[in-house]
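Section handout 9: paired folding examples.
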Amino acid sequence: MASMIIDEVKTDILVVGGGGAALRAAVEAARLGARTRVAVKGKLLASGSTATAISELFAIGAALGFADARDNPEVHFEDTMRGAQGFCNPSLVKVLAYEAPERVLELSNMGVPFDRENGRIRQKASDFATYPRACSAGGRTGYFISQALADRARQLGVSFDEDVMVYKFLVDAQGKVAGALAFRKGCEDPFLYRFRAAVLATGGAQQLYRFALSDVSMTGDGYAIALDLGLPLVNMEFVQLGTGVVEPVRLALSKPVFSLRPRLLNGNGKDILTGILPDGVTADDVYRTKVFPFSASNPSRYIDITVFKNSIAQDASEFIPVYLDLRGSPEIESTISNTLKALREAGVDPRLSPLKVGILCQCFNGGVLMQDADCTTAVPGLYVAGEVAGGVRGPDRPGGNSLAEGQVFGYRAGRAAALFAREGIGVSLLHENTVALALAESRELQRSWQGDALLIRFQVKYLMSRYCSIVRDEKGLRVALDAIEDIRHRINGNTHRAADRCSSESSCDPISALSTRNLVEVARIVLSAALFRRESRGPHFREDYPASAPDMRHAYSIRRAESDRLIIDQVNY
């Protein structure tokens, strides 16, 4: 960095992230009178995962009881706890189930064009839900939710800083979070946010994997920020992966697609399900029970496992597609209209040719340990919501819960942050030495950066997609973890220092370098958590430990100690 002078931006509330949870937090904080700014890593409504994801059943779940009067918040709570298998906080799940209906009705009043039937919001069946409660808006539910919230936020005077990456939080003399360092796209010098409270709503780390249902901005920044603060992450071994279209568009393939009984073919036209199902499991079983994402607890796991194994290539630069053949399906138009629309917009027609499919990453079930229903963390003044938060999601969860969590806890986080600031609890005592030390640290990272960020990302994606995807085992996880540790040392400049620090343009870009560093840090966490859990449960399938272990029926948190050592603790809910 060329200058010692640093720009400052002051606000009451800083919201980091641009998805559904972040926008809901901003709306509520501003509604309560707090000056609110939102730092978005990319472009609002065109980055992240909430606004960009599309699928047949991309929906928000709420027990409105429109499709079946027997559905109610208590059933929603029970469904979620059953999928969680004891791995999440019951009090948080209770809040989710009971407050989701109000949040959905608010969104409807804001103008979200939910699909309707007889004048009421249409509710569809979804995975792990007893009754239909998924509310969708033409397969682009997340986009319409984000659009409505962004419009409301602007009406309330919320400021948006686009193309800004927040990479480090600073605490004041009282231990409260009071500042954050960030980079603007195209700038080599960071700037400082000063605030009274902050909401971390950065989403997950889907870019750890070769194929993802998000854009390139999802690099685990919130997880890395939390690790830097010494905060624990919980359930990080549970990553939602599954079979989806990978070229030319990324698209999750949910239950309605498989209800059409498509054939899964390798490059030679051979049906890859033939002969691989164990005794007692039929093709009808796997198609009838198909869920997205993959779950080791479900017979449909054989679809995802065989797709994964048939797409493995020894060469890291190569991908072997599997082909999903829907040609000749008579009910395709009426069954998967949203999927067809998305495919046609990408120039693909599954009625005429098979789809190229593989394993893609949807989201993370783990995150920063949320201490209570107000989304607090162990650092006063810092709140978490959405995918970056942990404690509401276990190994499996009902379809629609993801968007619901963002709305319920985004609302609560924004409210709690605004009250924290209003009551004067968040008066900043941020010391200038704290800022200076943090700036020196970021300068050192830039000075000592080793290697090409794009190449490192490619290596990380290969390692995670090959060894920490649908099928895992100790040997592969250790291979990946050893490689990640080597990459960590290299990019931190600890080994093989070179006179020429910037081998390519991408290496010198602070946002690219920091995003890549964050991916490597989060990969280390996920691999370590997956190694520690010697059993199979939900989306975590260990081929060397294929059954669930009763003595591991609880969550674990993982945090980074000052010595850089990782500490794993049991979490008892």
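Moving on to protein 2 of 2.
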Amino acid sequence: MKPHKLLNPQTLPSKLRPIFLTNHAPSSAPFSSLTHPENPTDPPPITRRSLLKTIQSSQWHFIKHLSPNLSPSLISEALFELQKSPQLVLEFISNVDFHRLDIQTRCLAIAIVARQSSPQTALELLKQVVGSGIATIREIFNPLALSRERLSVNSSIIFDLLLRACCEMKKADEAVDCFYLMVDKGFMPKTETCNDMLSLFLKLNQTERVWVLREAEEGKGVCWVYGEFGH
């Protein structure tokens, strides 16, 4: 039996040549939109109205998330709208990092919080501001005065609280500055506040300041009744 000859594909007619199928990668053009999705749309800007709704619904986790993007003017506008809700204002500023706010916004918030029945919270906030060292007493006093006028507040309790904050922190120089700022504006410190000053000066052995302040205030309605202050 004769052996079979192997055929050379090159010698075959074109019609008889074997067809070898090759795999080609499918075109990615039709699917480009799937492999390269469009950038997501930016979130809508935060407005005063949307911020107020978030605060009033007590969404504090969301407030903390928004905090870095809240401008001082937007926060100030929200605070003004919430002026009759001091507790809500307190919760709000507690969730936006009070220490990051500018001095004007802090003072507006404190002036609102001071409307609570107890002044202790406002006093503690003022001590934070005084202790931070970011502003002088005058730079704190003036925004407080502007906030008081803007809120149409008749009471001058906010200035007494600032003076008390200085006394409790044993900042005698700042207490004197605050005292004279009050007098220049026509606000008389309450008897309890005056006693706080006298107590501070006596503890610091600064009795000369007691006499200077008493002479400055003679005839202006300030009562000096501290028990240890002698004749």
